[in-house]
Design goal:
Elements lengths: L1 E3 L6 E3 L2 H4 L4 E4 L6 E4 L4 H11 L43 H25 L1 H7 L10 E4 L4 E4 L5 E10 L6 E2 L3 E6 L5 E7 L5 E2 L4 E9 L7 E6 L6
Antiparallel strand pairs: 1-2, 3-4, 5-7, 6-7, 7-12, 8-11, 9-10, 9-13
Helix pairs in contact: 3-4
């Protein structure tokens, strides 16, 4: 089978089965062009062979010497006249995007943490994350006997007074106060939160607080105060 490059017209002689009935994509060695070469089907191949084969002649008395024909191709036949075209390679660029996004997220978190430390301080940040020691280095106590009073409308007011002090050598934040009324068995029958009298307390300083609640249970016989969120002091 002979194939010809459609670009530079270079010709090549190749075996019939090298192309196949379905055809094959080939590349010209001379100019590098690629094209889809149609194959030769089995019927066409057999027909071509039969048309080339010489017909037997009638036997004659004298037998002529066999003739030999040297069929020289117009161009030297190449053993490998074409090269299959390799499929395009996939680009491996899919990993770069997620890595860049992950790096940006990490950078934002790092900057946010630094800003929080500068703005609120390490203790407050740790408290917000639930990582700090929940003990408060402040003291708190009731300083007066709780008082029951009747107010307008027939409601009963329960008043309590106490003091907070800072025994440390540094200024400390002051949490809100939790007040609990307990019965004789020590069971909590009523509880409420008292707003802190100020946000921070200097070293060695103290501050008083007063609070009241309405219609608390009369079954209470004892009051306990602690800092909110610490579970006791």
């Amino acid at each position: 089978m002979r194939i010809t490059c459609p670009n530079c017209s270079s010709g090549y002689d190749v075996p019939d089965d090298a192309i196949g009935p379905a055809g094959r994509k080939v590349r010209c060695r001379a100019c590098g062009s690629s094209w889809m070469q149609a194959g030769m089907d089995a019927g066409a191949s057999a027909s071509a062979v039969s048309s080339v084969a010489p017909k037997p002649e009638a036997a004659s008395a004298s037998v002529a010497a066999p003739a030999t024909v040297d069929a020289a191709p117009s161009e030297p036949a190449a053993h490998v006249p074409f090269e299959p075209v390799a499929p395009p390679r996939r680009r491996r660029g899919g990993i770069k995007g997620p890595l860049v996004a992950l790096g940006l997220v990490f950078l934002v978190l790092l900057l946010g943490g630094a800003i929080a430390l500068i703005t609120f301080g390490p203790n407050q940040v740790a408290t917000g994350l639930g990582l700090s020691d929940r003990r408060v280095p402040l003291g708190i106590a009731i300083t007066k006997q709780p008082d029951w009073r009747m107010i307008a409308g027939g409601s009963e007011l329960f008043a309590v007074s106490g003091r907070i002090w800072n025994p440390t050598q540094t200024e400390q934040p002051v949490p809100d106060i939790r007040a609990e009324l307990k019965d004789a068995a020590g069971k909590t029958v009523y509880a409420w939160t008292i707003t802190r009298p100020q946000a921070r307390l200097g070293a060695g300083k103290s501050i008083d607080f007063d609070a009241a609640a309405v219609d608390v249970p009369r079954s209470s016989s004892k009051i306990a105060v602690s800092f909110a969120g610490t579970g006791g002091n």
